[in-house]
Amino acid sequence: MKRWLLLITLLASNQAFAHSSHDTSFLNSLLHPLMGWDHLFTMLIIGVMAYQFSMKKGVILPAIFVGLFGLSAIFSLGLGVGDGQLHLLNQMILVALIVLPLVHVLLTKLSFSLVALFIGVIGIFHGVTHGVELNVSSSSVLTGLILSTLAIHAIGFFVAMFASKKYEWILKAFTICSGFFAATIFVQSI
Fold first, then answer.
1. Cα–Cα distance for residue pair 142/110, rounded to 1 Å
2. Please, is 190 exposed, middle or buried when counting C-beta atoms within 10 Å of its C-beta (0-12, 13-18, 19+)?
3. What is the pTM of this model?
4. Whole-number Å distance between alpha carbons of 44 and 39
5. First-to-last CA distance in the chain?
6. Angle, to 10 degrees, between the axis of helix 37-51 and the axis of helix 60-75?
7. What is the percent of the chain with per-residue pLDDT over 70, rounded to a whole number?
8. Are 148 and 29 in contact (CB under 8 A)?
9. CA 102 to chain centre
10. Strand ranges inside the chain, DSSP E
C-alpha cells in the first residue's frame, strides 16, 4: 500500500497546479478542470455529496459552487496577483480538498447551511484562482469552465446514485484518499 501511495504521489506531485495551457479557446477551458487533480476531485466529491441530500437540497450544492465560482472569476479579472499570491490561492484549494472529505464523512451530522457555506467558500477560491489564471472575460472561456464543472458535478452525482448503499463505503474511501492525496501535495508545495 505504501509503495502505491508513494508512486501516485511521485507521478502526480506536479499535477495539482499544472494545467495544459492558459489559452482562451472554448475547448481548452472545457478541458481545464480535468487537467488538475485538485479541481477534478473537488468537483466529483461535491457531486457525490449532493446526491446524499434530498434532490431539492442536493442540487443547491453544485449551483452554489458554480454560481460563486463564475462570479468570483469575473470579479477577480484584472487583479494584480503575483506568483506568491497565486501559489497561496492554489494552496487554499488544496486545504479545501483536505477538509472536504471530513465534511463528506460527517455530512449527516452537519447542518445543510454549514455544508453549503463551505461549498460556497471553495467555489470562491476556485473562481478567484481561475479568474487570475485565465482570461475569463471571454465568454467562451467562462462557458467552457462552467460546463465542464457542471458535468463533473453530474458525474459525481450519478456515480453516487448508481452505487447502492452496499458500496457507499467506496465513495467515502475515494473522498478520504483524495484528502490524503491533497495533503501530500500540499506538504510538497510548502
1. 32
2. exposed
3. 0.83
4. 9
5. 25
6. 150
7. 85
8. yes
9. 15
10. none
